[in-house]
Amino acid sequence: MHAAPRKNSRPACTSSRWVVLVATLLVAAGVARAADTPEILPLGQVKPGMKGFAYTIFAGDQIEKFDLEVIGIMPNLLGPKQSIILVELKGPKVEHTGVVAGMSGSPVYIEGKLAGALSLKFGIFSKEPLAGVTPIESMLEAQSAASADKTTNAAAAPEDASPLLAEAAGTQDATTRQYPVPAELAQRAGVAEGAYLAPIETPLVFSGFHRAALERFAGQLTAYGMVAAQGGTAAPRPDDANLKPGDMVGAVLVTGDLSIHAACSVTLVTADRIFACGHPLFGFGPVALPMARGRVLTTLSSELASTKIVNVGGVIGAFTQDRLTALMGRLGAAPRMIPMELTIATPSQQKQFHFELIENAKLTPLLVAISAFNGLAGNTAYSEGTTFRLTGGIEIAGHSRVNLENMFAPTDMFIPDAVFVALTVQNVFTRIFSNPYELARIERITLRLESIPERRWATIESAWSEKSEALPGEPVSVKVLLRPYRGAPIIQEVPIAIPPQAARGSTLRILVSDSDTLNRMSRLFTFAPGRLAGLEQLITLLNRERRNNRLYVTLLQPTPTLLVEDKELPNAPLSEINVLDQRRSSGSSMLLRESTAGEWSVPMNQVVSGFYSLNITVK
After folding, report:
1. Cβ distance 161 to 155 under 8 Å?
2. Which of 48, 147, 248, 376 is buried deepest, with most CB atoms within 10 A?
3. Domain around 420
């Protein structure tokens, strides 16, 4: 089957703007022969009643042709000078399935010329064979955007690849857009007034994921107009890169023992350049997403949302632009990804998972959380009422390692216990990726999750000291009453010492607490923009955070502490405070009313919660 008619000479164009777009595309793609580009039908030549056809895959690798008829043009539907062609699809298959998730990007030919790509459908619960077509001129504007974007070439080549810029232009809110259809066209299309068009859903295919993981986290991705679907992976084939209009491609988010990819159809292949989808995936602008071949198993017809069931094949290149009207990429080298190792250990077994994640400030923390949760919830040894111990780290190029260590006790909340592990991991990664200092180039992620089949959790009920008065330098024993979950109370003794320089007659406060009580202030400090000098200081503070499986006793004295960047300056004199405040920008320091005179901790091998305060006088 021929994927598209080919031309022998360049067609006459009625629009100078269109001439410039085509010329830019041909030059940038290095096209040597005019036959490499199909003949184009400019939007200005599209009229109601014109006949055409489109290509897509319903099952297997067979590209199928179905007919269509133009109903009309909806000018400026997507925005200024962003019009849509409204068409009616014809044929037994499309009339049975309606517009199918994964069909976006299917090339549309009118009178034998490429006019655009299927991209919009009528609402939900609708199998009306009506669709919106993104004009090919609008899709090719992604090429103009790429020419102006200096990050595109770096994103496409693994040796020069850098993480996706968090501030990438063109980011849109994670909401499915709706475009009202004018009453005149709605009547002509045979639908009720008030009908609207929405982007055709993109199948977001998960392989190796437990249902609980999809129910808990997939909604954060499907909010971008995707539909979550179970799928698999297909072995790479020698012909994976031999793409034709109507074939399926996938934007890979995770690959390895776990797989996530978003699938849509190819609209145009020009030399090594690919245009697909006809609408954005996320609307991030410049991206660095591996491009893989998609293999359709079958098409599932549904009143809610018909969808293609797609496996992901071999990686064949990189998507470099995610724009309003198209997903654009190149065949060839794939962008670098972040390797991740996940070990799940239970009393009966240990499993290891190896996979790679895309570099993306918005998505990578979420993908790590999904993977961690899935590793736990998808384990046959997993059960509720289990305590988890997390260890591991994040290796960042040019910086110290971020160390991860914590315990998580189950609760009686109607939430899977593994969620708290996943959210904690996601929070750490978000703080790294969203830092205001520099792009963090993650080299490796290592996580180990150990399952302990009991609820290890204790609450601090009270505390006391054997002495109400002590001399400077004198040791003091602090006793803490802890009540374990459904267990007998225990008394934990923590030896401390009064500082030798403590002023006689002063009153010190002994704070017995969990880790979170001590971490709150440092977290508030690190989240405030401009308080730290850079990423390395943020990592230092993250590694300094207390662990929740330890009992802490902190000795506080009533003198101010000045927090400057990643440093704590206790007992700061007023003169020093004034000098630092004059030299530093607003918000770069913080003053606390107490200073830490000493801190001690005891490992408890269980999650500790609560706090208790008492005083001691220096005599």
Report:
1. yes
2. 248
3. 338-452
